[in-house]
Design brief:
The structure is a single chain. By secondary structure, the chain is α/β, with parallel strands linked by helices. The chain has one domain: Rossmann fold (3-Layer(aba) Sandwich). It has 7 helices and 7 strands, in the order E-H-E-H-E-H-E-H-E-H-E-H-H-E. The chain has a 7-stranded parallel β-sheet with strand order 3-2-1-4-5-6-7, with helices on both faces. Strand 5, helix 5 and strand 6 form a beta-alpha-beta unit. Helix 4 packs parallel to helix 5. The longest helix has about 35 residues. The protein starts with 7 loop residues before the first strand and ends in an 11-residue tail after the last strand. The chain binds nicotinamide-adenine-dinucleotide.
Length: about 270
């Protein structure tokens, strides 16, 4: 028995990473899915054909793409019960990298902050008139505190926390709000947006050298098996499936129960925030 059965879940950034996995797992649990990403072909490749899934190209920075997707979801499945504001980019860089990073930072603010706001606006009235809804926002541990190398990305995720909490306060009793704060989860496409790889050091502090060594070994397939087994306390880097499993747990609840915030870690992760 899944509470997600027949709920309609709209997911932004669903062509890769967490979003694609989440779309597939929601379909497995009997949900209807409205899957959105920049590229419709990539969505089809990631999710495959399903009568219960509507796939549309939508740029979250464009509010009309999102209102259009909500209207299509209402027409196809009767309404949007759950919105997952998942699309995000991570152009880590130091302030001194501004010449190279400036454009990506502006885009990051648009996607990570305005994209989440646009998603909330697009579903808000429909959820309020339906009398219930659930908004799940992807934040990050980078939003917990300022560290060198992630001024803009961290600020966008701190903003997501604020947007989420305000929504909870304003719509209490009508819209459930869940904030997801993953740690570093390798194996998605997010790292592709990093401008200066040295900037990831901020989240690791003094653990940087050890972390890079471990990640290098994992990538080369030469790591101690304990580091890559979730059944050991040495488990070092979370598999995206495990993060998505916990997101599903937060989403697969009766309407009256809210898991308002989750952080999921590998027991032996090396992050300082
Ligand atoms: P990812 O790059 O694998 O997936 C992000 C998806 O968003 C991609 O399919 C991309 O095409 C899409 N996207 C980007 N810009 C878009 C836009 N303007 N409109 C619509 N879609 C857009 O990354 P991921 O790791 O799966 O990240 C998903 C979310 O989780 C992001 O918000 C990210 O900040 C957050 N997060 C990830 C990690 C991690 O370690 N992977 C950690 C903390 C938070």
């Amino acid at each position: 028995m899944s509470y997600l059965r027949d709920r309609v879940v709209m997911i932004t950034g669903a062509a890769g990473g967490f979003g694609a996995l989440l779309a597939l797992r929601c379909l497995e649990r009997g949900a209807f899915v409205v899957a959105l990403d920049l590229d419709e072909t990539a969505l089809a490749a990631a999710i495959g054909p399903s009568e219960r899934c509507l796939m549309r190209s939508a740029d979250v920075t464009n509010i009309s793409d999102l209102t259009g997707a909500v209207a299509a979801g209402v027409e196809a499945f009767g309404g949007i019960d759950v919105l997952v504001n998942n699309a995000g980019i991570m152009p880590l860089a130091f302030y001194r990298d501004h010449a190279e990073a400036g454009e990506a930072w502006a885009r990051c603010i648009d996607v990570n902050i305005k994209g989440v706001l646009n998603g909330i606006i697009a579903v808000h009235d429909q959820m309020i008139s339906a009398g219930r809804g659930h908004v799940v926002n992807l934040s990050s541990i980078y939003g917990n505190a300022a560290v060198a190398g992630s001024a803009v990305y961290g600020a966008t995720k701190a903003a997501v926390n604020q947007l989420s909490e305000s929504l909870r306060l304003e719509s209490q009793g009508k819209i459930k709000v869940t904030v997801v704060k993953p740690t570093g989860v390798p194996g998605t496409g997010l790292g592709g947006g990093v401008i200066n790889p040295s900037a990831i050091a901020g989240i690791l502090g003094a653990n940087y050298e050890g972390y890079m060594g471990t990640m290098g070994q994992i990538a080369a397939g030469s790591a101690d098996p304990a580091l890559v087994s979730k059944d050991t306390i040495e488990y070092a880097a979370l598999d995206p499936e495990l993060l998505v499993e916990q997101m599903l747990h937060a989403m697969d609840q009766p309407w009256g129960v809210v898991i308002s915030e989750i952080t999921v870690r590998a027991a032996n992760d090396r992050y300082v925030i």
